[in-house]
Amino acid sequence: MRHLLGIEEITLEDMNQIIETAKSMKFVLERKIKKVPTLRGVTVANLFFEPSTRTLNSFLIAERRLSADTVNISKSFSSVEKGETLLDTVKNIEAMKVDIVVIRHSVPYSPHYLSERINASVINAGDGSHEHPTQALLDVLSMIEKFGDLRGLNVSIIGDILHSRVARSLILSLKKMGVKITLCGPSTLLPEYFQNYGVDITYNLKEGIVDKDIVYVLRIQKERQDGCFIPSLNEYIKYYSVTKDILKKYAKKDVVIMHPGPVNRGVELAPDVADGPWSLILQQVTNGVAVRMAIIYLLSGIPRSEE
């Protein structure tokens, strides 16, 4: 791989290589001194043109754990605000001898566009409602740590599927791993064309929870909605909020709850579920650093003999 643009573009072998490398990176995170000189001299530019807490800071920590130099640029502090194009901004940054560009942008396929026009490696940190590949990979690592072989696992993804780049990347990842997937949500946020992904669809929360090994909950993507997709928030909570009572009534006793964050507590997920024994949410955050360390390392092109 020269870039990580999306799960659609990579093979199962690529995914397995990233996951196995991330496992080794976790040993670094568990050490007393959580830093290695592996990427000393490598420069990574983080271009985040959408708000981010977990993903941006996860990349920053990953880069610093590997001793890479970092450049951080947001839309409000870039020349884009003065009318400069995205390509000109990135080309100017690349002229400063940047090796890897991590980009989050509201326009789908922005990372793909850049990858065809610059020499640096490009990592997609989220492009509109299209994909979020690093999130999917950290989710897969979290699932593997919990279940081992994922083949035959039953996973449901519940919430705003229509606007979720996480859902798209996760579906593509889990299909490559042989997982059975059920999508659940209001019909306005879950169009029938998602069946083209080879998944089951239900609009009933009970059916989205019964017999599932993992219940992956998504928030409503208000910032990407250009219309009214649900009657009210209270209506959504009534029919689709995952609560302790719902889990006790319908879920397997050993069900696992996952969420990409940020969690809207009391909306898609009850606080006692987010913090309860079912939850892998904080493990996902930890694995996010390890996966991003692995991706940056693999794309850097530095052979192991130079570590």
Automatic annotation (TrEMBL):
<dbReference type="GO" id="GO:0044205">
    <property type="term" value="P:'de novo' UMP biosynthetic process"/>
</dbReference>
<dbReference type="InterPro" id="IPR006132">
    <property type="entry name" value="Asp/Orn_carbamoyltranf_P-bd"/>
</dbReference>
<feature type="binding site">
    <location>
        <position position="165"/>
    </location>
    <ligand>
        <name>L-aspartate</name>
    </ligand>
</feature>
<dbReference type="GO" id="GO:0006207">
    <property type="term" value="P:'de novo' pyrimidine nucleobase biosynthetic process"/>
</dbReference>
<feature type="binding site">
    <location>
        <position position="262"/>
    </location>
    <ligand>
        <name>carbamoyl phosphate</name>
    </ligand>
</feature>
<comment type="pathway">
    <text>Pyrimidine metabolism; UMP biosynthesis via de novo pathway; (S)-dihydroorotate from bicarbonate: step 2/3.</text>
</comment>
<feature type="binding site">
    <location>
        <position position="82"/>
    </location>
    <ligand>
        <name>L-aspartate</name>
    </ligand>
</feature>
<feature type="binding site">
    <location>
        <position position="54"/>
    </location>
    <ligand>
        <name>carbamoyl phosphate</name>
    </ligand>
</feature>
<dbReference type="GO" id="GO:0006520">
    <property type="term" value="P:amino acid metabolic process"/>
</dbReference>
<dbReference type="Pfam" id="PF00185">
    <property type="entry name" value="OTCace"/>
</dbReference>
<feature type="binding site">
    <location>
        <position position="261"/>
    </location>
    <ligand>
        <name>carbamoyl phosphate</name>
    </ligand>
</feature>
<comment type="function">
    <text>Catalyzes the condensation of carbamoyl phosphate and aspartate to form carbamoyl aspartate and inorganic phosphate, the committed step in the de novo pyrimidine nucleotide biosynthesis pathway.</text>
</comment>
<feature type="binding site">
    <location>
        <position position="55"/>
    </location>
    <ligand>
        <name>carbamoyl phosphate</name>
    </ligand>
</feature>
<keyword id="KW-0665">Pyrimidine biosynthesis</keyword>
<protein>
    <recommendedName>
        <fullName>Aspartate carbamoyltransferase</fullName>
        <ecNumber>2.1.3.2</ecNumber>
    </recommendedName>
</protein>
<dbReference type="InterPro" id="IPR006130">
    <property type="entry name" value="Asp/Orn_carbamoylTrfase"/>
</dbReference>
<dbReference type="InterPro" id="IPR036901">
    <property type="entry name" value="Asp/Orn_carbamoylTrfase_sf"/>
</dbReference>
<dbReference type="Pfam" id="PF02729">
    <property type="entry name" value="OTCace_N"/>
</dbReference>
<feature type="domain" description="Aspartate/ornithine carbamoyltransferase carbamoyl-P binding">
    <location>
        <begin position="2"/>
        <end position="145"/>
    </location>
</feature>
<feature type="binding site">
    <location>
        <position position="104"/>
    </location>
    <ligand>
        <name>carbamoyl phosphate</name>
    </ligand>
</feature>
<keyword id="KW-0808">Transferase</keyword>
<comment type="subunit">
    <text>Heterododecamer (2C3:3R2) of six catalytic PyrB chains organized as two trimers (C3), and six regulatory PyrI chains organized as three dimers (R2).</text>
</comment>
<feature type="domain" description="Aspartate/ornithine carbamoyltransferase Asp/Orn-binding">
    <location>
        <begin position="152"/>
        <end position="298"/>
    </location>
</feature>
<dbReference type="GO" id="GO:0005829">
    <property type="term" value="C:cytosol"/>
</dbReference>
<feature type="binding site">
    <location>
        <position position="219"/>
    </location>
    <ligand>
        <name>L-aspartate</name>
    </ligand>
</feature>
<comment type="similarity">
    <text>Belongs to the aspartate/ornithine carbamoyltransferase superfamily. ATCase family.</text>
</comment>
<feature type="binding site">
    <location>
        <position position="135"/>
    </location>
    <ligand>
        <name>carbamoyl phosphate</name>
    </ligand>
</feature>
<dbReference type="GO" id="GO:0016597">
    <property type="term" value="F:amino acid binding"/>
</dbReference>
<dbReference type="InterPro" id="IPR006131">
    <property type="entry name" value="Asp_carbamoyltransf_Asp/Orn-bd"/>
</dbReference>
<feature type="binding site">
    <location>
        <position position="132"/>
    </location>
    <ligand>
        <name>carbamoyl phosphate</name>
    </ligand>
</feature>
<dbReference type="GO" id="GO:0004070">
    <property type="term" value="F:aspartate carbamoyltransferase activity"/>
</dbReference>
<dbReference type="InterPro" id="IPR002082">
    <property type="entry name" value="Asp_carbamoyltransf"/>
</dbReference>
